[in-house]
Design goal:
It contains 27 helices and 15 strands. By secondary structure, the protein is α/β, with parallel strands linked by helices. The protein folds into 4 domains: 173 residues, Serine Threonine Protein Phosphatase 5, Tetratricopeptide repeat, CATH 1.25.40; 70 residues, no CATH class; 151 residues, Response regulator (Rossmann fold); 164 residues, 3-Layer(aba) Sandwich (Rossmann fold). The strands form 3 sheets. A 7-stranded mixed sheet has the order 7-6-8-9-10-14-15, with helices on both faces. The longest helix has 20 residues. The N terminus and C terminus are likely disordered.
């Protein structure tokens, strides 16, 4: 039974909702549709005249109908107005199911996790209807993965496997297990494959560890998969290998025997082309020590007519072309109706073709990818109101547009976008963006009206909970302290890789403390054989390091392009990030996260679920 206070509160809530229904016949509640209200209103009227537990049953029924119609705001108001502790067990399970749906839709992943891991729910698994348990466990697995709790997500999906009876659902669940495992580091996979006590889990970890350890060597990966299958004959993955592993033999049999490397050998981009070439051949020579057969590589100059260079490479036997690097040359190729010999470009055109070009794969270091990743990460971590600060340059404007589009698609709001030109205008731009001048003007006006001097401290705007910054290291070193000067030092700042040079410099990088940024794994990989080979054999400036990584990943990608095309969920974990193929032929990068602390860049877990600190 509900106590009198709770009963009164519920009746008051229902009365308020019903009043809203009566006064607004077409937009009866936030997010509602006119077709929903006539069906919900009778349930709420009946609930307002009922006692527990019938009242709660009717309210849950109304909330379920609202969620079916995507009236999430109204459903949230209804559910959060209930006291879950007073619900009977069946009603409580339905409440958890419905409220977790609303929280997931809202992007409130930490709240979803709390709802779905409640102690009371944990005590009721044995008595749940199988379909209800499947639904709840699928959501738990999803939110664990989103929050970086990969081990818990995999455990949840293995429990799910025993409940599923539909063959398609079973296959999807296995693929989810596999793709979740592949987000884990090689070291963690190796450690868990040795120490996990659950046999099924240990088998999965073992398969994932050997697969991730051999992403640069198809033949060795196939041999180790075969050895794993002999060792684990009864494991669920044995007869139903992950989709990408099923394609290994085909990939090995159909590797290109001759590759054309199409890069600028002269002109303003010659040094950049040289850096990409050095990275590519560092990966090539390392692989040649382990693989019996290597493709013939022929180099062509892309600084002239790119279509002529393409045709020459094809006529001389190229079965795959890697390049060009120049954006305008990539644009020329993207206008072709089709490419009989596939091309893996090393940049993206400014305008994507209306229809994807058959045989065209696009790969590069797009700043737009980084901006979209910032939006997803910041939203995942609970931020909703963003300020954007960028230099006044075309490429940064494209990045800001990509961030804004992704942020708004997720449900976030951009409250302000500002541009700085360079040294000297940071304070002016930040002061204006933070509305400090309006605060000062209000104080002056108040002093005038009162006729007295007031002790006053200016205040910044309060509708910002994160800042997206695009800046190079020198710019960022001025922006960050200026934010603190203008009362915004504790707003989390997210940035793209441009704020960190890759060269540790704690003395001056202390001014970047607290900034979170996405960047290449390459910058923190000091054990890479390719990196050591490049350092020993080239005289390239450090500014070309990222292009070395681009060349290395071009080599790693090319034999797996058919695999990426056939398994959309698959990632290649390369030097530039986690790479996956989009339907339009673009390869998108998901980089790792780092933060500056005490002037030093430090890699971070996928999710930063902690209080913001400098």
């Amino acid at each position: 039974m509900l106590n009198r206070g709770i009963t009164g509160a519920l009746i008051a809530l229902l009365a308020f909702i019903l009043a809203s229904c009566s006064s607004q016949p077409t937009t009866d509640a936030p997010g509602s549709t006119s077709s929903t209200a006539p069906k919900v209103k009778p349930l709420l009227e009946q609930a307002s005249q009922s006692t527990s537990p019938e009242r709660e049953r009717l309210m849950l029924q109304a909330a379920e109908l609202l969620i079916e119609r995507k009236d999430y705001d109204w459903a949230r108001n209804l559910l959060t107005g209930m006291d879950a502790g007073t619900l009977e067990d069946d009603a409580y399970i339905k409440y958890v199911d419905l409220l977790s749906n609303v929280a997931l839709e809202d992007g409130s992943y930490f709240l979803t996790q709390g709802i779905l891991t409640n102690v009371r729910l944990e005590r009721q698994w044995q008595r749940l209807d199988p379909q209800v348990e499947i639904r709840l466990r699928q959501k738990r697995a999803q939110v664990f993965a989103l929050l970086g709790e990969t081990h818990n997500s995999v455990r949840e999906r293995i429990t799910l496997a025993a409940l599923l009876t539909d063959l398609e659902e079973e296959a999807r669940n296995r693929e989810e297990i596999w793709q979740t495992l592949m987000t884990m580091s090689q070291g963690e996979l190796q450690e868990r494959s040795q120490n996990e006590t659950d046999e099924t889990l240990r088998g999965w970890y073992s398969l994932a560890a050997l697969s991730k350890n051999n992403q640069t060597n198809l033949e060795r990966q196939q041999a180790q998969v075969d050895a794993w299958r002999a060792q684990w004959p009864s494991h669920p993955a044995n007869q139903n290998l992950p989709s990408d592993l099923q394609l290994l033999r085909t990939l090995i049999d159909n590797q290109p025997r001759q590759i054309a490397l199409l890069l600028p050998l002269q002109g303003r981009l010659a040094k950049a082309g040289e850096a990409v070439r050095d990275g590519f051949f560092a990966a090539y020579y390392r692989a040649s020590k382990e693989r019996p057969l290597m493709p013939l590589i022929r180099q062509y100059d892309s600084s002239g007519d790119v279509l002529t260079a393409y045709e020459q490479a094809v006529s001389e036997g190229a079965e795959l072309i890697i390049g060009p690097l120049e954006k305008e040359k990539v644009a020329e190729l993207s206008l072709m109706p089709s490419l009989p010999v596939p091309v893996l470009t090393l940049n993206y055109p400014d305008t994507q073709p209306v229809t994807p070009v058959q045989g065209l794969y696009q790969f590069g270091l797009a700043a737009e990818d980084e901006a979209r990743q910032v939006a997803r990460q910041a939203y995942l971590e609970g931020h909703r109101f963003a300020m954007v600060m960028i230099p006044s340059q075309d490429w940064s404007e494209r990045s800001a547009k990509a961030f804004t589009e992704e942020w708004q698609k997720l449900g976030g709001t951009v409250v302000n976008t500002s541009q700085f030109i360079g040294t000297g205008d940071y304070s002016r731009v930040i002061k204006s963006s933070m509305q400090i001048e309006q605060s000062q003007a209000r104080a002056v006006e108040l002093e005038r009206r009162l006729g007295t001097n007031l002790q006053f401290e200016a205040r910044r705007r309060q509708d910002v909970d994160m800042i997206f910054l695009i800046a190079d290291p020198a710019q960022a070193r001025q922006v960050k302290p200026t934010l603190a000067f203008h009362y915004a030092g504790h707003i989390p700042v997210y940035a793209t890789s441009h704020i960190y040079s890759g060269i540790p410099n704690p003395g001056i990088d202390r001014d970047l403390n607290g900034i979170r940024f996405n960047t290449m794994p390459w910058l923190f990989d000091n054990q890479s054989p390719e990196k050591k080979m490049i350092d020993q054999n080239t005289q390239s400036s450090a500014i070309y390091s990222r292009l070395h990584a681009l060349g290395i990943d071009a080599f790693r990608l090319y034999p797996r392009l058919p695999q990426l095309a056939q398994v959309p969920e698959m990632r290649i974990y390369g030097a530039t990030g986690a790479l996956h193929l989009l339907p339009d032929g673009r390869i998108e990068r998901e980089q790792i996260w780092a933060r500056i602390r005490n002037g030093v860049a430090q890699p971070l877990p996928t999710v930063v679920a902690e209080t913001y600190i400098e």
